[in-house]
């Protein structure tokens, strides 16, 4: 029988890291960042100390992303590099986890190609990380655990990377099966957390002085549909708004096919709920949207964002776009350009279509060349960058509320933070304002960010 200590860690695991250092490398989305915060806390409870430098580490954990080919290639080259490191440090343990390893073929590829990898762990098996590391430490050998058994994640420790902002998953997995997407295959079916568990965690964060949470889900709109209790996402949002004590509540990602009027009302009426929707459209062509299995038309999508803008003044809308989907004709691409002109997103993240193993779109015959894809990405970004700058210009001389994150990574003379509409603001101040909610007058508008100065009244 496995004896567990207070944090649910097997007793045989909680001393394994004594005198050792661990480095965590994270690829991908906010859900992966959150998983890495859980990994960090699990390793802390095993007595590992964290190091940002893999060269110094006794254990390296790589948390992978499989949403496109690029992050997968980066993992392969890292593993190549660590093969040399392991020759110098034979006791170095290397673990690979995340969305790449949850796929049997890719887990086997890593197992057979990189013999210096000790542990291959899927996204679902995360709670077993401590006992697996303990087993390898004691018995040596290699372990592959990509079981799809969804062990309970409630109560796992978390080491938040900020003392005032936190990721807060509300639903795991996705049932949508968009034809280009690997997520349902690596994150599984939709599983909502209970309202009570989410409220408890949020209130606990509020009590600890956290200011902002971002609710995470591949499609938060589906929240509650798999629960016995009669609750949905707008209910959850309003409960957090009224009871958590948090000042800012964000959420991502909403699927346009089932974003309800009640959700728009909740964002409009909830004082703590930030006025920003991240609403991936992916394409402006109905023919391509159908091939993507997105379940909405461009007309329905435009209707939705017009409704949001009519209901919530000053709301920000951002999106995701894919160019070069199999079979995308020039006319389809022009539909995407005209939608971007019409929608006027505050910002949009545009990606080259990247075939993912086992997805329906990867099996389509009419894959486009890299040249066509890159040309379309360039043309799309030119338009969106112009619009982003114009949208930022609307805030010139306005006073906005900013939560300061801390010194700017690019220029420490400045501090950066985000508005409620998630716009990045740089400002100069001679005191550290990290974690403060301040009023800023916008003095300059650029494509990706705004510059400002302190305005009356620090809250
Ligand atoms: S909604 Fe579609 S794109 Fe988003 S995670 Fe689910 S399958 Fe992937």
Describe the structure.
The chain is α/β, with parallel strands linked by helices. The protein folds into three domains: 135 residues, Rossmann fold, CATH 3.40.50.12160; 229 residues, pyruvate-formate lyase- activating enzyme; 60 residues, OB fold (Dihydrolipoamide Acetyltransferase, E2P) (Beta Barrel), CATH 2.40.50. The protein is built from twelve helices and 19 strands. The strands form five sheets. It has a six-stranded parallel β-sheet, with helices on both faces. Strands 15-16-17-19-18 form a five-stranded mixed barrel. Strand 4, helix 3 and strand 5 form a beta-alpha-beta unit. The termini are far apart.
Q: Can you lay out the helices and strands and say which pair or pack?
A:
Blueprint: E1 21-26, H1 30-44, E2 49-50, E3 59-64, H2 69-88, E4 93-98, H3 104-113, E5 119-121, H4 129-139, E6 143-145, E7 165-169, E8 171-172, H5 183-187, E9 191-192, H6 195-207, E10 212-216, H7 233-243, E11 248-252, H8 261-269, E12 276-278, H9 286-291, H10 298-311, E13 316-323, H11 330-343, E14 347-352, H12 370-393, E15 399-407, E16 415-419, E17 424-427, E18 437-445, E19 450-458
Parallel strand pairs: 1-2, 1-3, 3-4, 4-5, 5-6, 7-10, 10-11, 12-13, 13-14, 17-19
Antiparallel strand pairs: 8-9, 15-16, 15-18, 16-17, 18-19
The chain binds iron/sulfur cluster (SF4).
